[in-house]
Amino acid sequence: MATHRGGDATPAGQRSLERDAGRGTIDVWWLADDGGLTLLIPHLLTLPKSYLYGAHLRIFTVTSTESKGRDKEVEMAALLAKFRIDFHDLHIISDISTEPQSATTKEFDKLIAPFRRNQEGGWITEAMAHASAAKTKRNLRITELLREKSCDCDLIVLTLPVPRKGLVCSTLYLSWLEMLTRDLPPTLLIRGNQTDVLTFYS
């Protein structure tokens, strides 16, 4: 599954799409193992005759604690080498569980305010907001990291969050996606189905 935002909606996004090949940067935020699709597509976009031929890949992934960051970096670099994916930088994010800033939370609360209701049927109820609080905080924290680290790239490729059926309504889910892509360069959200799409020769 893939969805795209940006490219022609804003002057900044339009300029990104018009940059010369070989000078661009693709930021890949691989936040879950989806079979490798989130890594494969940006890699293909850097190959000859592709959209961003010669662009640099900057890979971002997460770890639960800072102490595991170095091990995760070594593991990830070995994995990318095994799959023959050239990358320019590799960043391990260890503060993904940090509370989002109050300004970000207020921005999100303002976004969903028109959709808060007590009844079911597509509205964001108090019970739903409470049950999804941890997921909301994580997505808001990712929003802050994207704005901090990827505001100057040409394309963002981001793992698409997966809502839990029956627990998250479409309005809340789309509000997460709005925050994750707002005021950023063109963004491609991708989610594989856990079927391996990357291969290597032993």
Structural account:
This protein is an alpha/beta fold. It contains 7 helices and 6 strands, in the order βαβαβαβαααβαβ. Helix 6 packs parallel to helix 7. The protein is globular, with a radius of gyration of 18 Å. Residues 9-15 have low confidence and may be disordered.
Brief rundown of the structure:
The chain is α/β, with parallel strands linked by helices.
Strand content: 5-15%
The spatial strand order of the largest sheet comes to 1-6-5-2-3-4
DSSP helix fraction:
25-40%
Task: Give, in order, the helices and strands.
Answer: EHEHEHEHHHEHE
Which of globular, elongated, flat, extended, rod-shaped describes the shape? Answer: globular
Which runs of at least 5 residues are low in confidence (pLDDT < 50)? 9-15
* Helix-strand makeup class: alpha/beta
Average pLDDT value? Answer: 82
The number of strands is 6
Task: Report the major sheet.
Answer: 6 strands, mixed
Gyration radius, in Å: 18 Å
By DSSP (H or I, 4+ residues per run), the number of helices equals 7
Distance between the termini: 29 Å
Descriptive labels:
202 residues, alpha/beta, 15% strand
